[in-house]
From TrEMBL:
PANTHER family: UNSATURATED RHAMNOGALACTURONAN HYDROLASE (EUROFUNG). Residues 1-26 form the signal peptide. The keyword Transit peptide does not apply. Keywords: Hydrolase, Signal. This is Glycoside hydrolase family 88 protein. It comes from the Bacteria. The lineage of its organism: Bacteria, Pseudomonadati, Bacteroidota, Flavobacteriia, Flavobacteriales. One of its GO terms (molecular function) is hydrolase activity. It comes from Flavobacterium chungbukense. InterPro entries: 6-hairpin_glycosidase_sf (IPR008928), 6hp_glycosidase-like_sf (IPR012341), Glyco_hydro_88 (IPR010905), PolySaccharide_Degr_Enz (IPR052043).
């Protein structure tokens, strides 16, 4: 065998071993992952997540695979990271999750259309890329199931999607992120863009009914019926501003604009909404670069600088400035914010693993036990380390700011 041929075979062998190791690394225990401090923050966080949860469904200490909006958020972040780095370890992590919750025929684990839960839509966003990459029909079948839900999903009289069937007549800011980016991509890629007016309507209704003209911020939710105890009897709005809910709304805007054609008449309107809310949010940025759990309450006793809302604002500012939706000055605010996250909210273990602290575990309105939307309620919810709400937006924000 000549030297060239020998070298070629050796190179193939080493290459195969390399990709084989990547696949194993994505699925094995923590001892097999090395998290170098020389890596960018996006990859350091992604590898730290994989180290703690070799299977994506294990994030948040889940004991079995499930279809979940929080996992969908993290899978969106991992897919974006895969697209940027071309490192198959991240793509494999995403695919492995969806293969654990979608059957060979495209049936989604623990998904029930008749629940009419807008949260269910969010995890479907990454399926578009998976279907493009694999041409596997089960991913397309799952996409179509989720789109079917939107056809019959209950709405307010003014045309806005209810947050859930169990929350009748209510629109929450959270729901804009859960539903509209998926809806926008579907109509762009499968329906010739015919539904962009309906997508814009969701933002129009939220803007019309939750905007506080005094601060420029948006209240967490609106009850069209005004029957909920938390709803203002004149306006139907909930009583406070929750940073993560505003963050969901802002991320929804910058993501929907990825798919809305430049010539569409509603595009300018959505960019206007993004500028309005960004201007209001910027006023409440703390000197640390971060934002408080209750956005406008500052250092009021019990309020705290919260990770997920801060990261979502950073992502929206950075992406909005990069794509020309926002003035370039917002990138500086995003950089200041991300530096604050690293300085005040990130901890690093001796082995390089990183953690995100001060993440609100969950917050909502109504339900049992009853959540009244008061300041006291928002600051009383559990604060966690490495909660998924803080992991996904960290990676998304980092990607937008990394050169």
């Amino acid at each position: 065998m000549n030297k060239k041929k020998k070298y070629f075979i050796s190179a193939i062998f080493i290459g195969c071993m390399f990709f084989s190791c990547l696949k194993i690394t994505a699925q094995e225990t923590s001892k097999n992952l090395i998290i170098s401090k020389d890596l960018k923050w996006s990859e350091r966080m992604a590898l730290s997540i994989m180290k703690r949860a070799p299977k994506a469904w294990q994030i948040d200490h889940n004991d079995k695979p499930k279809w979940d909006y929080k996992l969908g958020l993290i899978m969106t972040a991992f897919e974006n990271l895969y697209q940027k780095t071309n490192n198959p370890i991240y793509g494999s992590y995403v695919k492995d999750y969806y293969d654990s919750v979608i059957s060979s025929s495209g049936v989604i684990t623990n998904y029930k259309l008749e629940d009419y839960n807008i949260d269910y839509i969010n995890a479907g966003k990454t399926l578009f890329d998976l279907y493009k990459q694999t041409k596997d029909e089960r991913y397309l079948n799952a996409i179509q199931q989720l789109r079917k839900q939107l056809e019959t999903h209950p709405r307010t009289n003014s045309g806005g999607f209810w947050h859930k069937k169990i929350y009748p007549n209510q629109m929450w800011l959270d729901g804009l992120y859960m539903g509209t980016p998926f809806y926008a991509r579907y109509t762009a890629e499968f329906d010739g863009g015919k539904d962009f007016d309906d997508i814009a309507k969701q933002f129009e209704q939220i803007h019309l009914h939750t905007l506080d003209k005094k601060t420029g911020l948006l209240f967490h939710a609106w009850d069209e019926s005004k029957k909920m105890d938390w709803a203002d009897k004149k306006t139907g709005t909930s009583p406070n501003f929750w940073s993560r809910s505003i963050g969901w709304y802002m991320m929804a805007l910058v993501d929907v604009l990825d798919y809305m054609p430049k010539e569409h008449p509603k595009r300018k309107e959505l960019i206007g909404y993004l500028n309005d809310i960004s201007k209001a949010v910027a006023k409440y940025q703390d000197q640390s670069g971060l934002w408080y759990q209750v956005t406008d309450a500052g250092k009021k006793q019990g309020n705290y600088l919260e990770a997920s809302g801060s990261e979502m604002f950073i992502y929206a500012f950075a992406k909005g400035a990069k794509n020309g939706y926002l003035p370039a000055s917002y990138k500086k605010l995003a950089i200041k914010g991300f530096e604050g996250v690293i300085k005040d909210l990130v901890t690093v273990d001796d082995d390089g693993e990183i953690h995100i602290t001060q993440v609100c575990a969950s917050a909502g309105l109504g339900g049992n036990p009853y959540r009244d939307g008061s300041f006291e309620y928002y600051i009383s919810e559990k604060i966690k380390v490495d909660n998924s709400h803080g992991l996904g937006p960290f990676i998304l924000a980092a990607i937008e700011l990394e050169k």
